[in-house]
Amino acid sequence: MLLTYNLSVIVYFPTRSQGHSSTAIDNIFIDTYKFINFTFSPLYKGLSDHDAQLLKINDADLQLQNCHIYTIRNINNYSIEEFKTWLNYESWDSTFGYNGNIDIDILFNLFLSNYLRIY
Asked: Does this model's pTM top 0.70?
């Protein structure tokens, strides 16, 4: 299944050793058609029973793809009526039901955040 995505295993040596046994439990797969010039080696530090892996890709030609996500709102008679209905269901007590001393900027920001959330 991995070959259908051009993925090949590059770890061919044991990465964990414990006593007299060793296993290759750390697997790394790369596209060897895309990354031709690479080196891979273990890093023996002696701090753990697992050895670190070092993959160095030389001359990688990674082109950044220009991916843009656009959000388009479909505004029609139905969506306008739905928007007005959701505005009607909103409790505006935090904005208009306050009778104390509060800054008008705070009230406006409360209103605007509720409005934009529904929009």
From this structure: no
Looking at the chain, list the stretches that DSSP marks H as alpha helix, in order from N- to C-terminal side.
77-89, 93-96, 104-118
Please give the structure tokens belonging to residue 38. Answer: 């690479």
Cβ-Cβ contacts under 8 Å for 116 (sequence gap 6 or more): none
d(CA 106, CA 47): 56
Tell whether the model's pLDDT for residue 100 goes beyond 70.
Answer: no
Segment among 31-35, 58-62, 68-72 with least mean pLDDT: 58-62
Per-residue pLDDT, 25: 64
Rounded-to-integer distance, Cα 14 and Cα 21, Å: 9
Look-up of token digits 């061919």: 12
| Alpha-carbon gap, residue 59 to 61, rounded angstroms | 6
Give me 109's structure tokens.
């920001």
Kindly tell me the burial class for residue 4, based on how many C-beta atoms sit within 10 Å of its own C-beta (0-12, 13-18, 19 or more): exposed
What's the mean pLDDT in 46-72?
72
Measured between alpha carbons, how far is 106 from 100 in angstroms, rounded to an integer? Answer: 13
